[in-house]
Structures are given as C-alpha cells and as structure tokens.
Amino acid sequence: MIKKIRQMPLYLVAIILLLFTGLPFFIMINTSFKSQLEFMTSPWSLPDSFSFSNYALLLDTNFFSYFKNSLIVSVISVIIVIIFGAMASYPLARLKFKLNTPLFLLFMVGMMIPIHTTLIPIYLLTINLGLYDTIWALIGPYVAFALPISVVIFTQFMKEIPKELEESAKIDGCGHIRLFWRIIFPLLTPAVATVAIYNFIHIWNEFIFALVLTNSSENATLPLGLREYYGEFTVNVPAIMAALTLGSLPLLLIYFVAQEKIVKGLAAGSVKG
C-alpha cells in the first residue's frame, strides 16, 4: 500500500503527459468528422453525427498521390540510411586506425550544419543532375542529413556489442564483410528501429526541401499537398484534419512495429554468461 502511495506522483505525471499528447490527436480525429459549419459553431464539442464527407473529399483530390510520393521517398531514404549508416559505423566502432576519432567527429559536425544554408547549392546541383521536380531529387538530401545522427547511434550501439562474438567468428575464418552481415548487423535491431523511427518521422514531415526541389502537384509530398485545402480567404479545417489523420497512420504504424522490434532486439542481443 505504501509503495502504491509513493508511486501516485508518477501516475499523476503520466496522466498529465497523456493529456498533453493524446488530447491534440483526439481533437484532430474529432474535427475530421465535422462539417465546416459545425466546426465554426462548436469547435470543441463532439460531432452531432459522424460524417465521412471530409474523407470522401480526399478521394476527389490528389491526396493519395501526395501520400504515395511521401511513402516512396520516406521508405527508400530510411532503407539507404540504415544500410550505409550501419556500414559506416562498423569501422568506427570495431576497428582501430588513426583516422577513427577524426572521422567520427566529422559525422558529429555534420549534425550541426543548418539545413537551410544548403538549399541553394542543393537546388543548383539538382538542376544540373536533371532531377529537379522529381521525387528522386529529395532522397539525396534526406539521406545526407540523416546519416550523421544515424552513424552516431549505430556507432555507440556497436561499441556495446561484446568483442567475444567477433573474436569467435574470426577464429572460424569469418572476414569483415561476413562478420558484419552475419554477426553484427542482426544484433543492431534496437538501433535500426531507433534510426528508422527517428528518420521516418523527420522525412515524412519535411517541407522545405520538398517545396524547393519540386514544382508540380504530381511530385509533391504530403506536407506540400496539404496546402490544397487552404483557400484564398478560407481554410477547410475539417478536411485538413481528415488528411492529417490519414497522414499520421504510417507514423503510428511504424512506431508500434518498431517498438516491438526494439524489445525483441534487446532480448536477442543479450549475451548469457
């Protein structure tokens, strides 16, 4: 009983955090089922009747084209970041050479570069490569700015992997390539899940590069496409909330899937003495 009383402040903090994080999501879903008039007259109340007209409206727009573009760009970018980030982290974490520390610091410096200062060079480079106004123009910048933090996460995680596993594999004649893919990479599940969640959320919500490097609605991503529901003098708030509700589903899905992978990865990566 005393233990439960001592834990009451923790439960109170958890409830407050739940309200702060869950209430906006509830308001978003609740508003998506209202008409524009009902939202203007009673924005905080429950809808009188749940209407799917806002979701039906999305079928008459390019919403699913924007959704598809964002999904393609985000998935491909995250896969590239995971593969190259893990490969770059292996020598930094497991091998000893003179440039080990300077290279690691170089990746950390990459985390400090303001994204907006690179817009003009990347814009000119994209035009010269003939990739302007294509979804493929977005993958390069997304991967480049996601690699530094990903390399830091992978490197720190690899350093915690017992060296006995590596030494046993080398005794059996395993080279560095096989050692990485057969031994090290399968143990990186928690780090892979962390990198995937972090970068997918940032890439999915990214706006400025999509605005600068694309020009047509066919190649626009979801953050750009939401502008379609903004008029010159009015804003269709319920339609925007419906679009945001559908747009947030991949984020929730990847979070719950990756969260389970983190727990499984921690159990699989443990070493029994």
UniProtKB/TrEMBL annotation:
Q: Has UniProt tagged this entry with the keyword Acyltransferase?
A: no
Which key words are in the record? Cell membrane, Membrane, Transmembrane, Transmembrane helix, Transport
Its cellular-component GO annotations read: plasma membrane
Supply the Pfam families for this chain: BPD_transp_1
Query: The ABC transmembrane type-1 domain covers which part of the protein?
Result: 67-258
CDD domains to which the protein is assigned, alphabetical: TM_PBP2
Q: In its UniProt record, which GO terms are filed under biological process?
A: transmembrane transport
Please list every transmembrane segment annotated in the UniProt record, as residue ranges. 12-33, 71-92, 104-123, 135-158, 179-201, 237-258
- Transcription regulation as a keyword? no
Q: Which Gene3D superfamilies match?
A: MetI-like (1.10.3720.10)
Compartments where found: Cell membrane
Protein name in the entry:
ABC transporter permease subunit
> What taxonomic classification does the UniProt entry list for its organism?
Bacteria, Bacillati, Bacillota, Bacilli, Bacillales
